[in-house]
Design brief:
With 190 residues, the chain is an alpha/beta fold. The chain has 10 helices and 4 strands; from the N terminus they run E-H-E-H-H-E-H-E-H-H-H-H-H-H. Strands 2-1-3-4 form a 4-stranded parallel β-sheet. Strand 1, helix 1 and strand 2 form a beta-alpha-beta unit.
């Protein structure tokens, strides 16, 4: 898995496990510096090629959309996948960021922190769900000030983070699930 940040690193393994309905054992590369850090051409190509030599089923790349025009980030990533890579590469573009996928199940916050998160709009309508919703919730309701890798994992591991509900609430997660299912040869659940 190639991801942009620590919270993505914490949340993505249990998200993928819940989407596929089976445990996954990820090998990680993550780059500080967000999309630009992850997409440094030579390093990105090297990461993807390295996965081709590991015992992995596929390569997963998940990045935030960050208010970019639809499809822009996907086309950048696709253009940087070396042609000699033999593993399937699954790209997920979280709109606007992966934290939208977390808040899609507000009850998971209640399991994790004793209170549900309150949403004023759909998860993918927030420009910065990490700052606008998650960190604000943590500051107001917990001793934590920011979302960490461990907290992100706790939210998804809770009994109320539901992959089907999150897919209905977040079209970008549903798109990622469809691509993931196709790559592993499983038919998506409706």
């Amino acid at each position: 898995m190639l991801v942009e940040g620590e919270t993505d690193r914490g949340a993505l393994p249990p998200i993928v496990s819940k989407l596929l309905g089976r445990e996954v054992s990820p090998k990680f590369v993550y780059r500080k510096g967000g999309f630009q850090g992850l997409m440094a051409r030579k390093k990105f190509e090297g990461y993807v090629r390295a996965y081709g030599h590991l015992d992995v089923e596929l390569v997963i790349v998940v990045v935030d959309n960050d208010r970019r025009p639809a499809g822009e980030r996907r086309s950048v990533i696709e253009s940087r996948i070396p042609s000699d890579v033999r593993k399937p590469v699954v790209i997920g573009i979280a709109v606007e960021m992966l934290e939208a996928w977390l808040i899609a199940c507000p009850e998971a916050f209640e399991d994790s922190f004793g209170r549900p998160v309150r949403l004023k709009k759909k998860p993918e309508e927030y420009q910065d769900p990490k700052r606008e919703v998650v960190n604000r919730f943590l500051e107001d309701n917990t001793m934590h000030r920011v979302l960490t890798r461990e907290l992100a994992r706790r939210i998804v591991d809770s009994g109320h983070w539901d992959a089907d509900k999150a897919r209905r609430e977040c079209p970008s997660l549903d798109d990622f699930f469809e691509r993931l299912s196709n790559a592993v040869g499983e038919s998506p659940a409706d």
